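User: Could you walk me through two proteins back to back? I'd like the raw sequence and the structure tokens for each, with a short line separating them so I can tell where one ends and the next begins.

Assistant: Of course. Protein one, sequence then structure:
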Amino acid sequence: MLNPQRLAIFATIIQTGSISAAALQLRCGKSVVSRQLAKLEQELGVRLIQRSTRRLALTEIGEHVLREARQVERALANIEQLTEQHLQQVRGVLRVSCSMAGRRQLVPLLAEFTARYPQVKVALRLEDHLVDLIAEQIDVAIRTSALVDSTLVARKLSSNPTVIVAAPSYLARAGIPDTVESLQRHACLVYAVGARVYDEWAFIGEEGLYTIRVDGPLQMNDGGALVTAAAAGVGILRVPRPLVADELASGALVQVLADCALPPGQSNYAVYPARNFLALKTAAFVDFLIERMDVQPPMQGR
């Protein structure tokens, strides 16, 4: 396969009139230009230039090749210009993956981000399973799990302290739990994915970590739907506090067992493929999320 850079060098030699002048314009050694021309002629199997001590003259086939080489030279210049513009402007389609529950935090921020960068179009995918960012061409994923892939980089966005909440209507009907153990007598809303049911709620006591098993009328694989059910008075919910910040502020949900210590929840991370040159749209989005949340140092996957 022909090296397009050699075609561009050939065109520069003819444009400048000599190998020495071409080397000067290209800011490289004369021997480098001469060697690249020789390799091009070898690849094509023809002589492009008749050399003499006084001048360079194109051969007949050299004239035909020159016309094509000039198009290649223009194309390379255009590509370089497009790349520079791409690196200098925040624009293009930004593909983002996020969990179903995480949308409650992320979607309101997307409106602010797209207002700040109107040339960016966000394509958001909501899914509760890990995706292959490279294979599926995802620019950024919002995850709560630890990195295991060395081709990825993660930036911590926020911590997720856990709270136990219920609607005032539920508490008026069923009573307020006053101990951890009393939760077992209440209707509790449980997160479940496939055969995995997260019905063991962890607490921190005087002797360390312990769990109790809860039960209730609803199991769902969508944290946002569980919040909606809790606000409707269906039962008690254990949930990351950021997911219910609005409901707690409005009074639709209230915190119960606030004096009980719970283990820290999983943190949120912005995860993206490790590359030498990170697209400006990706860098701007990650920086925006950190600005709106917590600043943390980058963590390379392991």
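----
Protein two, same layout:
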Amino acid sequence: MRLLVLGGTRFVGRAVVAEALARGWEVTALHRGITGRTPAGVRELLADRTTPAALSDALGSETWDAVVDTWSGAPCVATEAARALVGRADRFGYVSSGSVYVWGEHVDEGSPVVDGDAHDVDGPYPALKRGAEVGVVETFPGALLARAGLILGPWEDIGRLPWWLDRIAHGGRVVAPGRPDRPLQYVDVRDLASWLLSGLDVGLGGAVDVVSRSGHATTGELLEACVAATGSDADLVWLDEATLAAAGAEPWTHLPCWVPESGEFAGFLEADTTRAARTGLVCRPVAETVVDTWQWMTSDRRRGPTATSTGSPQMWSGRCSPAGEQRDAGEVRAAHHRTRYVKWRRGARRGSTAGRRRGG
């Protein structure tokens, strides 16, 4: 199988390249040469894909069996790339996001999606991803749309699991959100890559919610795995959602991977992923994802982000009073105010794209 990966040097793209090589596929990666290089055995095409002429020159007259695109910016760029590959690739896979669904109405692949324009140059993250989907399908009607949920694993460049690992490695009392047995729903980046390439290999098409079943792991299992992997003496201090809300904790941003179980986030980690399972998605144990991510973080390779906009991991190291969690709640509140300021600053620079990293 001759595969073209648009990107291939960061997180998801990197995992796709590694999986393709492991399968013995012939891999070409087109990227700018800025955010990293690909492993040995990959043919590199260097170009800024946002410039149509540069993209065309780099692609030349070659053909491929399949293409994978992980683009998350302006839909017009994904649309242009798909058009440039018309007649030059048999199959097309686009890594999209579960964020394309209308907020609060996502149940499965048949749920309503947000509006998206294939030619947009800016907009909120859900509309950007949906617009790219539209542009890809206009050119490749049988394209495989991998609507990924929360993605974790080695080389993560968003700072979710790395944030928890770095914080827990520092030891002490660690704020743990909600209840320990809260079901999580996520996908290891390597399992996403494996599923995507297998789907392309057999000609699978259409939209699929690529994420584990709800409850594949729990919040408690994730954080305990972090404690075990780091060998830390961290003490997980579980704060209920009422305490977190009173402290002003913002879901998803202050404490990564966590959202409340009620209110506007009800059902957020409970999507029906039957189609993903039926089409071959197999999710590895959470402990494996955590251990491998920690080994990557502590290896001699380039280290990924280990903190989000909430600031340093030490921010969460509260020392509770004997009566309860007042100190921990205070640190959540402090992070809340810090994050509001950072998000305001980002909004001033980026406009409507400021919140694009909330989802998967």
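The chain has two domains: 2-148, 154-182+214-265+284-350.

Let me know if you want the two compared in more detail.
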